[in-house]
Amino acid sequence: MTSARSSGSSDAAPDRDSATERVPRARMTGAERRNQLIEVAKSLFAERGYEATSVEEIAQRAQVSKPVVYEHFGGKEGIYAVVVDREMSDLRDRITSSLSSHRSRVRVEQVALALLTYIEECTDGFRILVRDSPVGASSGTYSSLLNDAIGQVTHLLASDFGKRELQPESAGLYAQALVGMVSVTAQWWLDERNPPKEIVAAHLVNLCWNGLMNLEPEPRLHGSDSAEA
Fold it and tell me: Which stretches are tagged as biased composition: Basic and acidic residues (predicted)?
């Protein structure tokens, strides 16, 4: 009898422990689940690219079923569009605010620093913006953001060129060169991360600003036969 009671007692203990362990997880609200899926998808898109990422992988990493992803976004292209839109809005706000005030040189400093700070704080987002997008995407891309920046810089340079008796019609060309230089350097810094962003920005401004301040009214190529003639 004693051994029987002991055996029964030892069987009951695990049941109580199991009941304690099987506490159900708190269910996410619809908004919480949506944000979770966006963050998971952003990480995968940054790691693997759009084409190499599947809805199944997004669902698996988020620990949900594939229909949950389809319910919120309609598919991979839908969730990718949301990720890109969020990142674009963040980066556009940073760049626009950096162009909205300050003296001309400080504007250049702030634009370079804004882009580098975004890369530092939102590395996955920047990798997605500069890498790839679904075929046929014509807006909401890094290229469209750069075009917006070029338009703003063109306007600023045209006004400055007019005051300095330079050719305002060449402002667009210089804007392309300046924005391109900052953008390409930023993509290089994405993986390098050395020197610190403040030093990178300072060197970019050194080249941009000192070049702009010493522009020739009518530049000529000095190494060509036509120029020597």
Answer: 13-30
Residue in 29, 41, 48 with CA at minimum distance from that of residue 73: 41
What pLDDT, in 10s, does the model give residues 60-114?
A: 999 999 999 999 999 999 999 999 999 999 998 998 888 776 677 888 888 899 9
CA 179/CA 157 separation, integer angstroms: 12
Cis peptide before 195 (omega within 30 of 0): yes
Q: What is the CA radius of gyration of the chain?
A: 28
Taking each helix axis from N to C terminus, what angle separates 55-62 and 76-99, rounded to the nearest 10 degrees?
80
Beta carbons of 228 and 131 less than 8 angstroms apart: no
Position 91, amino acid: L
Q: Which residues does 200 contact at the CB level (< 8 Å), separation at least 6?
A: 112, 116, 185, 189
* Global confidence as pTM: 0.76
User: Contact at 8 Å (CB) between 119 and 126?
Assistant: yes
Q: Is 128 within 8 Å of 83 (Cβ atoms)?
A: yes
* The amino acid at 170: S
- CATH architecture designation of domain 86-228: Orthogonal Bundle (1.10)
For residues 5 and 13, give the distance between their C-alpha atoms in angstroms, rounded to a whole number: 13
